Amino acid sequence: MNAPVAQTPLADLEVIICSADRRRVLARADGDALRLPRLRPTGAWPPPSSQLPGAVAAETGLLVALLEPLDSTLFVAEPVGGEPTAGYAWHDVDAFGVGPVPRWLRRSAPSTAPPWYRAGWFAAAVAWLDPVLAERGVRRTGPVTQIRHWTTSTVLRAPTTGGAVFLKAVLPHLAAEPGVITFLARQWPRAVPEVLAHSAADGWWVTADFEAQPPARDGAAALRMLARMQTATVGRTAPLVAAGCPQVSLDDLAARVPALLRRSQLWQSAGVDRAGLTGIGMWLQDRCAELDDLDLPSTLVHGDLHPGNVADRPDGPLLFDWSFASVAHPLLDLAGWLHPLAEPEARRQVGAYLDGWRQVASPGELSEAWRVAKPVAALAELVKFADLVDRTGPDYEFDYLPMAGVWARRIRDAVAGRDAHLTGWRDPQPI
C-alpha cells in the first residue's frame, strides 16, 4: 500500500506453522532446542509477505497460507499441502518452553484482526473461487498462492486455463474498490484492472492478469495517465461518489489537524516536542486554506499512488490498488508517488504530470498550486496512516507507524523549509 521506503538490510523472518487445533508446530531439532523456519527476504519487491509461502515450501516442504503477523519479523501460518522435509517435523507446543511459540499461545486474538488472518479463510476463498472460474469456462491449473498479505488487504494469485487471476480482499471501509474500477474501466479499460467477479458479502473480488509486473519504470507515463483520468472527471465526480468514493475537502483535512497533534506517538519519531506542535498545526491549516483559494477542482484521487501500484503495459501504464480512491484535491496523489524519487527525476515527473492539467489551469498557476500542495499532500498521507492505526488497533500498528513517522518528519521539515527529499520542498525553481 504505502510507497516503498529507502532500501535497508532486511531482517530474517520466522514462521510459526501450526496445526488446525494449535497443538502442533513445525520445527527442526537443533541439539536440545527446536528451531522455527527462519527465512531471509531477497529484496523489497515483491514484499516479504508474498515471498514467504514460496520460501517456506522450499525450506520445509510444506505449502502454507499465512495467517497473522505478530510483528514485522514473525508470522503465523497454516499448512495447506505437502509433507515436512529437510529435518522438519511436527512438535507438541508444550515442547517450546520459551520464545515466540508460547508468547503466541498466550496472546488473545485481537478483535481487529481481519478475516484473512483467521484459520480457514484461505480455504474458504479458494472454495469460492473455483466455481466462479467454472462459470467463466476456465479452471485452475495450479495451487493458489499469496501475493500480498497484511492488515489492510490480502491478494491471492491463481493460474488458470484462461491466464492468471487475482483475488483481493480488503478492510470494510475500502470495499468500494471494485465499483470504482468498474466505473473507470468504461473509459480506460486498459489503464485499470478487469474485474471478473465480485462478492460484496465477503468483501472480495477477482481481476484478470495485468500482463505486466510492477513496479512502474516509466513514471512520467503513469502520471500523464493519472492526469488524463483526473481531468476527464472534473465536474463529473457524481458517479465516483455513487461507486463509493469518499469526498475529502481541504476543510476536512484542516479539521483533522488538532486531533493529529494530540497523538504524541505520531510525532515522537519526528523529534517534534509539544511546544512545536502548535506552530505546525497553524501552519498546516493555513496551507490548506491557501491551496483552497487557488481553486483547482476536486476530482478523482487514487489515494495510494506509488510505483509499486503501477504496471507498465506495452500499450500504456495500468494503475491498480484503488482501495483508497476518493474525490479530493488532485495534487494529493503526488506525495506518495514522489516519496522514493531523487530530486532530478522527481522534478521531471512533476512537470509531466502538471502538463496534463494545462487545459484546466496555466503552467504558472499549476506550479504555484504544487508548491502549496506539497505539505498538504503529506498531511493527507499522515491522516491515512493514523486512520489505519485506529482501525486495526495496537496489535498491528507496526504496519503503519513507520510510514506515519515518515510523513510527520516531512511535515516538520516543510515547516522548517529544509526538506530536500520531496521535490521542491525547499524554495522551488520554476517547473
Automatic annotation (TrEMBL):
Query: Do you know which InterPro entries this protein is assigned to?
Result: Aminoglycoside_PTrfase (IPR002575), Kinase-like_dom_sf (IPR011009)
Domain Aminoglycoside phosphotransferase residues, every copy: 150-361
Species the sequence originates in: Micromonospora vulcania
- By its UniProt entry, which SUPFAM superfamilies does this protein fall under? Protein kinase-like (PK-like)
Stated name of the protein? Phosphotransferase
